[in-house]
């Protein structure tokens, strides 16, 4: 996956992500696609979450999946979750939960949903996502409505391993997160940070918006055979667009 | 960073001066309302009903992939995750159970699908 929070020269934020899933889960030799990615593209939906008769937040989901990977609470915050691989990963958390050792630990996508249901500001959401015990590691990419409200929360099971703020971003005006810690190098065979950074540098801050960021996320290898969709979000305007993605032809498998 | 070999080399489409963003494509994805004022067992009925065939196909592919390696994977998933479902926190437990009922997919398999993230972070 690739998540991006980009800030234009006036401080307007665009939050976007590619959802990549299905690695090694069956290859379709006719369509030249991963089988699971193919099936997932057919069950993508957008959801308006309603509470007390009013819109509370928006998300996109795979049908039948009740948790949240991406969402937007108008005027408050936006969130995407990227997978973080660790030896002490989801299995470990699940086993601890099953044996009652981590009874209060939250399942990742349900913690994300709970944050949308309960929290009403960027700062409240950030605090909740940073400090709530959970059952698996993850990268939470959180955006807000005001200038410089953006961060990457690198989560371990019992706390935040690293917090990267948009205001301190090495690139100055955007954060780009794939599936590696910000203070470590990507695995060389799976480096989507370098091409993503190069493409964002070509985009330049003055073009940071839905069109520009979508084009970056439609570039190889941030776009690859695993990519199922791109979601584009603006907390300020409440725009939420999910666009199906695929990478037919000569495209890297991940 | 190691450059991928051609034709898989990284390529930023901004170099081509092209624009792939077409906002009208967002309407290919259907919108649904999930009403949190309803009981959890009622919330996902419309979505589950509309997509039951596609969800079954997805889980079917997973089972096909896993079965040659773990021949009893389906029974195992039905048992282990079916039992786990009963201990999941609310409102997710009731939501997942109702999706299982509407789609006709065994509870263990729908539960496994819903905790896929935790399973795959290894």
Find the structural class of chain A using helix and strand composition: alpha+beta
What is the typical, i.e. mean, pLDDT of chain B?
Answer: 93
Based on secondary structure, the structural category of chain B is mainly alpha
Radius of gyration of chain A: 17 Å
Strand fraction of chain A equals 25-35%
Which range does the strand content of chain B fall in?
A: under 5%
Strand order within the widest sheet of chain A? 5-6-7-8-9-10-11
Task: List SSEs of chain A in N-to-C order.
Answer: EEEEHEEEEHHHEEEEHHEE
Order of helices and strands of chain B: EHHHHHH
Ends apart, CA distance between termini of chain B: 24 Å
Helix content of chain B: 40-55%
| Shape, principal axes of CA atoms of chain A | globular
Could you list some keywords that capture this structure?
heterodimer; A: 254 residues; alpha+beta; 22% helix; globular; B: 122 residues; mainly alpha
């Amino acid at each position: 996956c690739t998540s991006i929070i980009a800030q234009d020269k006036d401080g307007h934020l665009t939050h976007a992500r590619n959802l990549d899933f299905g690695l090694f889960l069956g290859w379709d030799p006719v369509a030249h696609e991963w089988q699971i990615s193919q099936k997932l593209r057919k069950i993508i939906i957008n959801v308006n979450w309603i509470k007390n008769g009013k819109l509370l937040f928006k998300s996109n989901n795979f049908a039948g999946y009740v948790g949240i990977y991406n969402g937007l609470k108008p005027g408050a915050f936006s969130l995407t979750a990227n997978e973080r691989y660790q030896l002490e990963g989801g299995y470990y958390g699940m086993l601890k939960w099953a044996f009652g050792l981590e009874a209060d630990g939250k399942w990742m996508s349900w913690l994300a949903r709970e944050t949308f249901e309960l929290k009403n500001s960027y700062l409240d959401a950030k605090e909740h996502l940073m400090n709530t015990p959970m059952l698996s590691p993850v990268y939470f990419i959180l955006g807000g409505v005001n200038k410089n409200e953006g961060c990457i929360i690198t989560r371990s099971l019992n706390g935040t391993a690293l917090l990267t703020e948009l205001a301190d971003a090495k690139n100055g005006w955007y954060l780009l997160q794939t599936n590696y810690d910000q203070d470590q190098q990507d695995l060389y065979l799976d480096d989507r940070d370098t091409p993503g950074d190069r493409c964002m540098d070509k985009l330049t801050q003055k073009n940071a918006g839905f069109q520009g960021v979508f084009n970056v996320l439609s570039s190889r290898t941030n776009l690859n055979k695993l990519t199922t969709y791109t979601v584009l979000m603006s907390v300020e305007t409440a725009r939420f667009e999910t666009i199906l993605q695929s990478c037919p032809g000569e495209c890297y498998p991940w | 960073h190691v450059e991928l070999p051609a034709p898989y080399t990284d390529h930023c489409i901004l170099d081509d001066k092209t624009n792939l963003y077409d906002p009208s494509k967002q309407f290919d994805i259907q919108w649904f309302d999930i009403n949190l004022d309803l009981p959890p067992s009622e919330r996902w009925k419309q979505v589950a009903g509309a997509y039951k065939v596609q969800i079954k196909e997805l889980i079917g592919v997973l089972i096909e992939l896993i079965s040659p390696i773990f021949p009893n994977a389906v029974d195992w998933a039905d048992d282990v995750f079916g039992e786990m479902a009963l201990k999941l926190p609310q409102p997710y437990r009731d939501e997942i159970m109702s999706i299982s009922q509407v789609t006709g997919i065994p509870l263990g398999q729908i539960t496994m699908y819903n905790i896929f993230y935790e399973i795959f972070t290894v």
